[in-house]
Amino acid sequence: MTELLTREEYEAIAASLNLPGNAFIDGSFRPATSGNTFETVNPATGVKLGDVAACAAEDVDFAVSKAREAFEDGRWSRLHPSERKDVLIRFCKVLTRNAHELAVMESLDSGKTIYDCANVDVPETIHCIKWHAELIDKIYDQVAPASDNHIAMIVREPVGVVGLVLPWNFPLLMMAWKIGPALAAGCSLVVKPAAETSLTALRLAELAHEAGVPAGVLNVVTGSGSAVGEPLGRHPDVDMVSFTGSTVTGRRFLHYSADSNLKEVVLEMGGKNPCIVMDDAEYLDSVAEHVVNGAFWNMGENCSAASRLIVHEAIKDDLLARVQAASRQWNVGDPLDPSVRVGALVSKAHFEKVCGYLKEADKGQILMGGKDSGGAFVEPTIVDVGSNDAVLAKEEIFGPVLSVITVSSFDEAIAVANDTEYGLAASIFTSNARRAIRGARAIRAGTVTVNSFGEGDISTPFGGYKQSGFGGRDNSIHAHDQYTQLKTIWIDTSDPADGEVA
Ligand code: NAP
Ligand code: MG
């Protein structure tokens, strides 16, 4: 945990921030070719923070051409692995020096709490880049079995120019999950942050350059999904796109690829993640803490949020009383106040969407919350939805709303858990080891945690089954598969002069 500053100290940092606004291409900031800009707003106050370049297809073309130039001349892609490692470790040191500034910038632009930005987003961003950096010169290629007259090499090569399309819920961290392994592999990158949260991506690119990542290797093109994301997805000279966001948008990238150059596509998408609590679960106070953290952390703006509580009828009342008690600790308020656990939703538009879901709930079903707190703030809300067919149990709300579904057996709990088009994450609370393992295997999701809520860590792959994921995994050594491709080099060593035949 980072030592937190006081609210006054964070406010002083906020007042002194120099916010970036221009796109970062080929090692320097530049406005959109059109000169257009859009406003970025602090959702906690509704106050404009600044103007950001509203880029379009011509800016994507320019950034891709610079990324291609950098990739082909080898200024990064062909550096000795240990040199790339040294630069990225230096980058992490620069990030550490700027940690408070980055945490405040992230909080202001997204409404996320400073508590989380300072304790999780910024340190995890640095840890992620460092983890991949340290791996660079420890990955070996392979030599396949072959005859005495052949050498069969299997080598990994960077995939080339990569487009990275990011969501607004963890702007820095999702960027790190992708740029960490992509830079490690030697690729050149064009990053498109979500328009709502572009600031820290720009600052990160500037700091990477300052630390020695060469011009053209890490570019950030700001603007909307249709103006920047789509041209990037359709670009004929982009070799691969890694996307995190909604399933609706992810699906589009497969069309973009099919209609253009068949670029590789990796998608990390939504979830409606189950949290099963069986009647034999132990330590219910601790279970309740996990349930609340799973549902309300990051205002529920979390693709792996445990938004469906599937609870056995025998312990339902007891557990829900404890969950409500634990939820009361999650106070809503000014995100820059380090004691606040629930900040603002990312935008007024998203706030309206979440409020629309709250109207779906029958008054009698709302066990707690259910109201907006003004501005873009929503109280932690618990709804006893009755059936898994309820809209609140089916659709990803991406707000602090926990839907409760009651079951009477373990098999029913597993069936309800799997009754979703998503498959990102799940948790099971039980003291029965057989059930825990059977459940972990039976649930169709990329991550299943037992007796805790979480996502594993940087050393374990993260991604989804079913409509939560496609084509690859973030995190762990497996993330490198996204940004590299395998080449076979088959060498015939026979020498006809010696009468040898291959
Ligand atoms: P989103 O609307 O899908 O946006 C994601 C990114 O795609 C943004 O940069 C967005 O740009 C861009 N985009 C939007 N429309 C596009 C289009 N037609 N063509 C190309 N790009 C386009 O999702 P979001 O609202 O930012 O994020 C919330 C969603 O992300 C949730 O569903 C959540 O579950 C999911 N998510 C998944 C993971 C995971 O790892 N599986 C992690 C975090 C979030 P603009 O926003 O600038 O228009
Ligand atoms: Mg903003």
Describe the fold and architecture.
It is built from 16 helices and 20 strands. The protein is an alpha/beta fold and 502 residues long. The chain folds into two domains: 7-269, 3-Layer(aba) Sandwich (Aldehyde Dehydrogenase, Chain A, domain 1), CATH 3.40.605; 274-450, Aldehyde Dehydrogenase, Chain A, domain 2. The strands form five sheets. It has a seven-stranded mixed beta sheet with strand order 14-15-16-13-12-17-18, with helices on both faces. A six-stranded mixed beta sheet has the order 9-8-7-10-11-19, sandwiched between helices. Helix 15 links the parallel strand 17 (425-429) and strand 18. The protein is globular. The structure holds NADP nicotinamide-adenine-dinucleotide phosphate (NAP) and magnesium ion. Residues 165-169, 192, 194-195, 224-226, 229-230, 233, 244-246, 249, 252, 268-271, 303, 396, 398, 424, 464, 468 line the site of NADP nicotinamide-adenine-dinucleotide phosphate (NAP).
Feature tags:
502 residues; alpha/beta; Aldehyde Dehydrogenase, Chain A, domain 1; Aldehyde Dehydrogenase, Chain A, domain 2; 2 domains; 6-stranded mixed sheet; 20% strand; binds NADP nicotinamide-adenine-dinucleotide phosphate; binds magnesium ion
Q: Strand order, biggest sheet?
A: 14-15-16-13-12-17-18
What's the architecture of the largest domain in CATH terms? 3-Layer(aba) Sandwich
Strand content: 15-25%
Shape: globular
Percentage of residues assigned to helices? 25-40%
- First-residue to last-residue Cα separation: 61 Å
Helix count equals 16
| Cα gyration radius (Å) | 24 Å
CATH homologous superfamily label of the largest domain: Aldehyde Dehydrogenase, Chain A, domain 1
Unreliable residue stretches: none
Mean pLDDT metric: 97
Structural class: alpha/beta
CATH topology of the largest domain: Aldehyde Dehydrogenase, Chain A, domain 1
How many domains make up the coordinates? 2
Largest sheet: 7 strands, mixed
- Small molecules bound: NADP nicotinamide-adenine-dinucleotide phosphate, magnesium ion
Q: Count every beta strand, where a strand is a DSSP E run of 2 or more residues.
A: 20
Highest-level CATH class of the largest domain: Alpha Beta
